[in-house]
Specification:
The complex is a heterodimer of chains A (433) and B (266). By secondary structure, chain A is of the alpha/beta class. Chain A is 39% helix and 13% strand. A 7-stranded mixed sheet of chain A has the order 1-7-6-5-4-2-3, sandwiched between helices. Chain A is globular. Chain A starts with 8 loop residues before the first helix and ends with a helix. Chain B has a single domain, classed as Alpha/Beta hydrolase fold, catalytic domain (Rossmann fold, 3-Layer(aba) Sandwich), CATH 3.40.50.1820. Helices cover 41% and strands 17% of the residues of chain B. Chain B is globular and about 45 Å long. The chains are: A alpha/beta (433), B alpha/beta (266). At the A-B interface, α3, β1 and α11 of A face α1, α4, α5, α6 and α11 of B.
Chain lengths: 433, 266
């Protein structure tokens, strides 16, 4: 039947979670740089602490500016809510620490951001949480790696740096068959490109530092809950379905049928680990999200032009972008990412390490640094930077060669970016002469 | 807490404190495709301020065993049986939308067991369009999205329910989808909206209600518009509290609902 529908993506990117400030009439979201919020009375204070009322007490737990950002990303992802964190790494840690403890096990993609790999393979092992890594496309391996103590499956929507496309529907089905949730890092695919919840993922996190902020100014993370996973029915998550002594015996799955995960993550994870986001950071990320649809369209358009240029260049051995038929996940990408495969990709330069160094040093517009998703174009050599802790075998497993160069394509004129690459490729060629 | 009601397992959220039948009891009744969790904030407040709370999952919803009951009258009998199972003789009945009709009918049934009747986001008659029934039969998820759009009046409800950072549109949709998926044998959307649509005993029930009655209405409610309450409000001599909210009053205006409940239960 015809009738009203929810607003579209672009409208939500501007309005979700926000309205003119009732106190001042301010149209833009105010930055509430206040550690704490005045209670109306002793009774009001007690009821806020005891979750009898909703409201803000202390900005480590919640803040009005952060709440707008949390609602906005939840709206864009199609979730029930979100938590803003100090970084993407903090968001990943918050997700895991809410669901897992000593003795728990995770099944994760082997094609992960180096920082995520470090957390899982080194740091969390020290706290008794083990991880089995599987190639993201090895579907049977996901299923076979699940143990009785497994608590979640985890992968990146586009693996770093090879852009392996995670088969979210299939991996989610494997997770759900085992009564487990699927957590995905969607940093490379903001919701304008892909909404993992529509394909079966249960939890999504972003390094909002990247495309969501979009301007390379702040570090932050966002953890979003789909509200679709039934924690109580799973019977694998007593943290959510049984009384929690740390909050007066609260059973989070009874308090909120669809928001139990976020309640515990906020009431325990933010409270105790404290990796919260600054309201100023939240405001800057909101500014970025307001233009996310416009920026992503341009990011993808520029990326396609540069991919085409590099794929045809004689100094380039391989371009790893899933829209190319040569990419192993091309067909899957066409299905899951019809709007584009983002603006980060890698290519292999023909020649030596010296030539690779010459290439990077000849670039004038691309900035050599450790980030992606900036409005400015960026370049990095993963083997010597983001993945330097990996030995050659681990690098190979992650699809990284010694000559692999990763680009993050910005919003500049595409012709200027191509000219910059031409200059650097000539420099690389001369260095090998 | 779990109870046996009419031979089946029933769940009631007690507000974070053990149920004590010696205290004044408040029964919360949810609307179509909802469960107890729409009430958790006021239920917690009342449980920690001298009340015994039973925020129920109606049969076939959430944690209560099905099948769903197919009339407001049957659901009101079930509610009174739940009171018996909990050991409470009388109660304040607080209902939202479909639950408000159950509360009305429960309050009207002899012998009188209602101390108060609070009808939130209510209307009588609560008719449902043929077009919505058709959509519900053919594409229930689409019908859920439609009702969700009509139920939430703002993109910036503050403070969030159950806490900051909750996107009310998404939370409401996820809850309805969860309830719909929980009854794979039937179309719960069609069932619940049918329960609302068929109820025709409102004015007779109103004549039998002897306790004080309060209405809590949303000024921007498109599901149960305030103008559709006039006749039943007059019949019940109800005190009307109007809040700036859509149909999801407990989520959009949690403090306003709590204040109205405190006034109603005082």
């Amino acid at each position: 039947m015809p009738g009203p529908s929810d607003p579209g993506f672009d409208t939500l990117a501007l309005h979700a979670g926000a309205a003119p400030d009732p106190a001042t009439g301010a149209r833009a979201v105010p930055i509430h740089l206040s550690t704490s919020f005045v209670f109306e009375s002793s009774e009001h204070a007690a009821s806020l602490f005891n979750m009898e009322r909703s409201g803000h007490v202390y900005s480590r737990i919640s803040n009005p500016t952060n709440a707008v950002l949390e609602e906005r990303i939840a709206a864009l992802e199609g979730g029930v809510g979100a938590i803003a964190t100090a970084s993407g790494q903090a968001a990943l840690h918050l997700a895991i620490s809410t669901l897992a403890g000593a003795g728990s096990h995770i099944v994760a993609s082997s094609a992960l951001y180096g920082g995520s790999h470090n957390l899982l393979d080194y740091t969390l092992r020290r706290f008794g949480i083990a991880t089995t890594f599987v190639k993201p496309g090895a579907i049977d391996a996901w299923r076979e790696a699940i143990r009785p103590e497994t608590r979640l499956l985890f992968g990146e929507t586009l693996g770093n740096p090879g852009l392996d496309v995670l088969d979210i529907p299939t991996v989610a089905a494997i997770a759900h068959d085992a009564k487990l949730p699927l957590l995905v890092d969607s940093t490379f695919t903001p919701p304008w490109l892909l909404k993992p919840f529509d394909h079966g993922a249960d939890l999504v996190f972003h390094s909002a530092t990247k495309f969501l902020s979009g301007h390379g100014t702040v570090v932050g993370g966002l953890l979003v809950d789909s509200g679709q996973f039934d924690w109580a029915a799973s019977r694998r998550f007593p943290e959510l379905s049984e009384p929690y002594a740390g909050f007066h015996g609260m059973v989070f799955a009874e308090e909120s049928t669809t928001g139990a995960f976020l309640l515990r993550a906020r009431r325990e994870g933010l409270r105790d680990f404290g990796a919260c986001m600054s309201p100023h950071t939240a405001w800057l990320i909101l500014q970025g999200i307001e233009t996310l649809p416009l920026r992503m369209e341009r990011h993808v358009a520029n990326t396609r032009k540069l991919v085409d240029f590099l794929a045809a260049h004689p100094m380039v051995a391989r371009v790893g972008y899933p829209e190319l038929p040569s990419h192993p996940d091309h067909i899957l990408a066409k299905r899951l990412l019809p709007r584009g495969c983002g603006a980060v990709f890698s290519f292999d330069l023909k020649g030596s390490r010296t030539q690779g160094k010459a290439f990077i040093e000849a670039l004038k517009i691309f900035s050599h640094l450790a980030n992606v998703g900036d409005c400015r174009s960026l370049v990095i050599h993963p083997a010597t930077t983001t993945h330097f802790r990996m030995d050659d075998a681990a690098l190979a497993r992650a699809g990284i060669g010694p000559g692999t160069i990763r680009l993050s394509i910005g919003l500049e004129d595409a012709d200027d970016l191509i000219d910059d690459l031409k200059r650097a490729l000539r420099a690389a060629e001369k260095a090998g002469a | 807490m779990e109870l046996q009601v009419q031979g089946r397992r029933a769940y009631a959220y007690t507000g974070g404190k053990p149920f004590d039948a010696a205290l004044p009891t408040v029964v919360f009744l949810h609307g179509a495709l909802n469960d107890h969790s729409v009430w958790t904030l006021p239920a917690r407040w009342l449980a920690h301020h001298g009340h015994a709370v039973l925020a129920v999952d109606e049969p076939g919803h959430g944690r209560s065993e099905g099948p769903p009951l197919d009339s407001v009258e049957a659901l009101s009998e079930w509610t009174l049986a739940l009171l018996d199972a909990a050991g409470a003789r009388e109660a304040a009945f607080v209902g939202h939308s479909m639950g408000s009709l159950i509360a009305l009918e429960a309050a009207a049934r002899p012998p009188a067991r209602a101390r108060r009747l609070v009808m939130v986001g209510t209307a009588y008659p609560m008719k449902v369009s043929d077009a919505l029934f058709k959509t519900a039969r053919e594409a229930p998820l689409k019908a859920i999205d439609l009702v969700n759009s009509l139920s939430v009046s703002t993109h910036a409800s503050k403070p969030g329910h159950p806490g900051p950072g909750t996107w009310l549109h998404g939370a409401n949709r996820a809850l309805m989808r969860r309830m719909q998926a929980g009854q794979p044998q039937i179309n719960l959307f069609e069932h619940d909206f049918g329960v609302c649509d068929r109820y025709a005993n409102g004015l007779q029930a109103a004549a039998a209600v002897a306790c004080p009655v309060h209405f809590v209405l949303g000024s921007a409610d498109q599901m149960t518009a305030p103008k559709v309450t006039r006749e039943i409000a007059t019949a019940l001599k109800a005190r009307v509290h109007t809040l700036p909210s859509g149909h999801c009053l407990m989520q959009e205006a949690p403090d306003g609902v709590l204040n109205a409940l405190r006034a109603a239960l005082a």
